[in-house]
Amino acid sequence: MSLLREIAQEGSKLPGLNARERTVLGRIAICQTEKMGGNLQGCDNCGHQEMHWNSCRDRHCPLCQGAARAQWVASRLKELLNCPYFHVVFTVPHELTGIALANKAVFYQLLFRAAHETLLEVGANPENLGARLGGLSVLHTWNQRLAYHPHVHCIVPGGGIADDGQRWIASDTPNWLLPVRRLSKVFRGKLLDGLELALATGGLFSADPAKTTRQLRKAAAKDFVVYAKRPFGGPPQVLKYLGRYTHRVGISEQRMVAFDGKQVTYTWLNRAAGYSQEVMKLPLQQFTDRFLLHVLPEGIRKIRYFGFCANRDRGALMETARALVERHNRLTGGAPRMPDAESASVPAPDKPDKPPLPCPCCGAGMRCLASDRTGHGPGEIAKRIMERRRMLSESRTGPPVASSV
Question: Quick check: 361 and 48 in contact, CB under 8 A?
């Protein structure tokens, strides 16, 4: 049994959980088990049969993000521009942690807005790029130890649309998009202005507004770390990154070491020690509390788009950007190779003609014999298969005739 399922099952019994937290843990506890229902796969060649249980599809579940990630990434393939991409990360100082925890929905909205507006404003400045940027952003709220650390990752094409809409302005240097110090200062001002306005207008919960004001002033004296990771080589690398990052949750099954009913043991990477792998052991209550810190409020989207990639503009402006990028590439004589469906190494969404699962016994293709979403076990599904076959046979030949003596 999955360690995370065991932990979720025991964690859901702990006192003090609200309804949403208990629901999330309850879904993880039964994810990919008989309680979710499933489908019976069978091999016509050797007769082998096996159950495949359904996933819970909760966005906080570490066990079942693979299919959602593959489908999302594959659908992004056609939206990529044929240019280098940059990775910009916006973080906040720990002085804002308490405010964020007490106002998750408001804080995350303001965090996204500040990051987007900062990139658009600094990018539009003629002293920098002088173009309208676009991109997507992903909210993460954890660090390797599963502690609370809200930050936004932005994936940005290495250029933008000129003010006249007739040119693609590319970054002058291959390893640099925008001045990081300028991004940091603008981001700090925008986020703090948003928080102060929310506090003044009642949009920010605070048991002690005077204390919250002092926290905001302390934060204003700190550096808001914004850093740009080394740029991607091109669209294929962007897809590879997105495939492992966008649908990530706080912890994965691979990092779990042990659970004895009371203590949870898991690994984490210590960046300060050269990314060495270390082991952490926490009581069940503390581990559960940490995990639940990262449950998002209802209605909060963790993946968003901005600039010319924003949802309201994505159709027309993305096509404009694509045409301008291609023209720029022809004029300059070079660009990264765009991936195709076969070379992208990204799983495609489920299709009706996808190849069947191979039989573990003989290697022949298996097929779905029956599906069940009510949580019945294999025995019950087998009975249903036999009943369906009997009914099908009777519909073709009629019911059996009783013999007369």
Answer: yes
| Residue that is written with structure tokens 């640099």 in the block | 176
- Is 209 within 8 Å of 106 (Cβ atoms)? no
Between CA 53 and CA 31 the distance in angstroms is: 8
User: Which residue type is seen at 135?
Assistant: G
Q: Taking a C-beta distance cutoff of 8 angstroms, is the pair 391, 402 a contact?
A: no
Tally helices (H) and strands (E) across the chain: 11, 13
Block residue for tokens 């933008």: 160
Which of 66, 68, 61 is CA-nearest to residue 27? 61
Q: Which residues contact 106 (CB under 8 A, 6 or more apart)?
A: 198, 203, 204
Written as six digits, the tokens of 174 are 């291959």
H/E segment holding residue 267: strand 263-270
Q: Would you say domain 66-250+294-332 falls under CATH 3.40.1310?
A: yes
Taking only the tens place, the pLDDT of each residue in 351-384 is 434 567 899 999 899 998 888 765 555 556 556 6
Domain ranges of the chain: 66-250+294-332
Highest mean pLDDT among 30-34, 335-339, 345-349: 30-34
Residue-wise pLDDT for 273-292, tens only, equals 988 999 999 999 999 999 99
* 236 touches 344 (CB < 8 A): yes
Whole-angstrom distance, CA of residue 128 vs CA of residue 121: 10
- Residue type at 138 in one-letter notation: V
